[in-house]
Design a protein that fits this description.
The complex is a heterodimer of chains A (312) and B (435). Chain A has 312 residues and is α/β, with parallel strands linked by helices. Chain A contains ten helices and 14 strands. The chains are: A alpha/beta (312), B alpha/beta (435).
Chain lengths: 312, 435
């Protein structure tokens, strides 16, 4: 059996230190950004640090992508333009975008970067991916709510790189409102900006689903509600990779660097095993144990929507 | 009295010439569409058999669309079709044919979010306008410029756009802007919510939304012990008797700000609610129609009439707020208490015929009423009069003790002149008490 090309293992990185850690753990690429332009980032790599971050990635021989994936408002456009000018100089390996404003500004600046199209929940078919492909996108980042059959079909028809999330939490809801603050005001509590930020450990429990804890946090972009479970496709990588997926993403949001790097290491070993003998892939229990060692006991590891059917 | 010549230019400049914006209303089904148009909508948007985000709505067949277009044309009104899903692979095959069909039946525009639907429509149905749906959550003028360059004549902005944002976009890009002015709103960025998918396996972006944002949630905060070890149980951020956390928003209502909305240059004022009742559509359309026309007729002397607001409240089933127009919504823009689902007035019947000589009307029943019930006769000209029901007869003239059969044709003596498509409404007897 011929060897298959190993897909890219892509990890989020919250800091320059974490770029190094996940590179050592076996990531082929990292995605970074700063919260003025990137949404739901695991950490902040500011414009000032970006040059060093790119250098760190280069030093470790991995690619680095920058998230510019806000839904932008008018008043953010001037600083967005400045930021894109900076990216034009620094030349990261790709820009991750959802808002077409990013395409317009790049065009006006005569900058033709590699674009990855990532609108999160709304990249759900191959024809729309092709549409953005015709406008410069080299990669589609698929919605997490697709199943294997749908993912496979996209890889067959899109004619571009396909990225799928294989590990970690996903976004369920993004509001432009400050919902935690509002609730506290409603209760008569003086809630201030101090509750802003993802590190406060707020979570929601739906009254009919007491065993699920949905992380919720507020930041400059409003309120984010995240999945109560973490995707983990380690055991079914061989099934997933029956489709020629180009990039496997590992989300490190609300995970410690240790846990994130450990998970990256497990996927690296798994991918290497799969690449050397795709037909006889046998997950090594050590890979999952390493992940479970750090896993929040309230967060189940699941296959996400990989084998699900949705109705509507 | 003559004006001195040198004063004239200033006088002319003071009289602002305002473009007449469109009032765009939901048409949940053919009947609701007809009422919306009759009560003053310039355009109505509907859902077809496919690709629409209200999969539970009473959506239109192509034949019904044809009839809708004909009916609307009689009033000089247009019909738009919402094709606002985010398609999955399995939805792709039928898009082109559907767009050709919509064009053929005379639909003026589609409202679409998924670029593949937009692109396909422009390629195969050139007479069909494409309007960008709010589901794209477009909030800045660069993105608006992108869609204009793609060939879209109109953009429906994200509900998060403020009045200032809208004015800046209008200033920077020569494109029609449509903004929601009334109705229910997602509290998330539209299209950026998959709560329903994760909690109920129902795909929100294909019309399966289970409104999980309006469910009750408890808010906790994780806590650690003295050694920094995370405790198994978080700290509840609510007291026992306190209302739960929810993401549910109050409904939008901008009728008190019609002058600002028109001055901002918004081209189309949109009312939400394809799932709402015919009574709701007609009432809300009427109120906005009056306000818009009054302002355009005489901007300087314009005043909001309390009765327009009263009309709105007769049909409202949720508390109202002003969304993002003036500030980011806070605590008072959200619903934490039990939602009051019952509008204070209900639709009792519709006038089919009226004989001025005898004062007798033929009414189609829409809700229970009986002799003694006080009815209000509501028309595109406002409330005509109120009367207490005396005798109710069936079509053959047999007296009835009550009007209890939906769609039954009834004969009723009217105390004043009425016209076909006038509505009879009644107050709810039992107003649900609020906590």
């Amino acid at each position: 059996m011929a060897l298959r090309t190993s897909p890219e293992l892509l990890a989020t990185a919250r800091s320059i230190e974490e770029i190094k850690q996940v590179a050592q753990a076996g990531a082929d690429a990292v995605i970074v950004g700063e919260s003025r332009f990137g949404v739901r980032l695991s950490g902040e790599i500011t414009a000032d640090e970006l040059g060093d971050a790119i250098a760190a990635a280069r030093e470790h021989g991995i690619r680095i992508y920058v998230a510019v994936n806000h839904v932008f408002a008018n008043d953010q456009l001037p600083e967005l333009k400045e930021y894109i000018q900076l990216l034009k100089q620094l030349r990261p390996d790709a820009l991750v975008f959802g808002d077409p404003a990013v395409l317009m500004i790049c065009r006006d600046l005569g900058y033709e970067p590699v674009f990855h199209w990532n609108p999160e929940m709304t990249s759900t078919n191959y024809a729309t991916a092709q549409y953005w492909g015709a406008r410069g996108a080299k990669r589609v980042v698929l919605a997490r709510e697709l199943n294997l059959e749908e993912i496979t079909e996209v890889t067959e028809h899109a004619g571009m790189e396909v990225q799928v999330q294989v590990h970690g939490m996903t976004t369920l809801y993004h509001s432009g409102r400050n919902l935690i603050q509002s609730y506290m005001h409603y209760q008569g509590t003086e809630a201030s900006d101090e509750i802003q930020g993802k590190e406060h450990g707020f979570y929601l429990v739906e009254q009919e689903r007491k065993d699920l804890r949905f992380p919720i946090y507020e930041d400059r972009d409003g309120t984010h509600i995240m999945s109560a479970e973490d995707i983990c496709l380690l055991e079914v990588l061989d099934e997933l990779l029956t489709a020629p997926i180009h990039s496997l993403k590992m989300e490190g949001l609300l995970m410690s660097t240790e846990a994130h790097a450990a998970a990256v290491r497990s996927y690296r070993e798994a991918l290497d095993a799969w690449t050397s003998d795709p037909d006889n892939y046998e997950p090594n229990p050590v890979w999952l144990e390493r992940i479970q060692h750090y896993q929040d006991p309230h967060r189940e590891l699941t296959y996400g929507f990989l084998f699900k059917e949705q109705v509507y | 009295m003559s004006i001195r010549l040198e004063e004239a230019p200033a006088a002319v400049a003071n009289r602002r010439k305002l473009a007449r914006p469109e009032l765009l209303a939901p048409g949940g089904n053919l009947e609701k569409l007809k009422m919306a148009v009759h009560y003053g909508a310039d355009a109505v948007y509907i859902g077809g058999p496919q690709y629409s985000l209200r999969s539970n709505a009473d959506n239109f067949t192509l034949d019904e669309m044809r009839e809708a277009v004909q009916f609307a044309e009689g009033y000089g009104a247009k019909v738009f079709v919402a094709a606002n899903i985010y398609a999955h692979n399995e939805d792709l095959a039928g898009i082109a044919d559907y767009m050709r069909e919509l064009e053929a039946v005379g639909i003026a525009a589609i409202i679409a979010a998924d670029p593949i639907i937009i692109d396909t429509a422009m390629k195969v149905a050139p007479k069909l306008e494409v309007h960008l749906s709010t589901q794209q959550s477009t909030l800045n003028w660069e993105a608006v410029r992108y869609w204009k360059e793609e060939g879209l004549p109109r953009v429906v902005l994200a509900r998060e756009a403020s009045m200032k944002d809208i004015m800046e976009i209008k200033q920077k890009v020569d494109v029609e802007i449509e903004a929601f002015v009334h109705g229910a709103m997602c509290s998330s960025f539209s299209g950026r919510c998959v709560l329903s998918n994760h909690l109920t396996d129902r795909d929100s972006n294909r019309g399966g939304c289970s409104q999980s944002c309006r469910w009750k949630y408890d808010l906790y905060q994780s806590a650690s012990d003295e050694s920094g070890q995370l405790l198994a149980e978080g700290v509840p951020l609510f007291a026992d008797e306190e209302e739960s956390f929810t993401m549910g928003s109050k409904d939008l209502c901008m009728i008190e700000h019609i002058p600002q909305i028109i001055d901002a240059g918004i081209d189309s004022l949109k009312i939400e609610g394809r799932m709402k009742s015919m009574h709701y559509a007609a009432t809300v359309v009427y109120a906005y129609r009056q306000a818009i026309d009054a302002y355009l007729a005489d901007p300087e002397q314009y005043e909001l009439k309390p009765e327009w607001l009263e009309e709105i409240h007769k049909a409202a089933n949720r508390p109202l707020n002003e969304g993002f127009f003036f500030q980011v919504p806070g605590a008072k823009e959200h619903i934490y208490e039990e939602e009051d689902k019952q509008a204070p007035f209900d639709f009792a019947g519709i006038v089919l015929e009226y004989d001025a000589a005898t004062g007798m009307a033929v009414i189609e029943q829409r809700n229970y009423f009986k002799p003694g019930t006080e009815l209000e006769v509501f028309s595109p000209d406002g409330v005509r009069f109120r009367q207490t029901v005396e005798e109710i007869c069936d079509e053959e003239g047999n007296p009835l003790d009550a009007a209890r059969h939906p769609l039954q044709k009834l004969r009723l003596k009217m105390e004043g002149p009425v016209k076909p498509m006038d509505m009879l409404r009644k107050k709810f007897m039992l107003k649900k008490s609020r906590k």
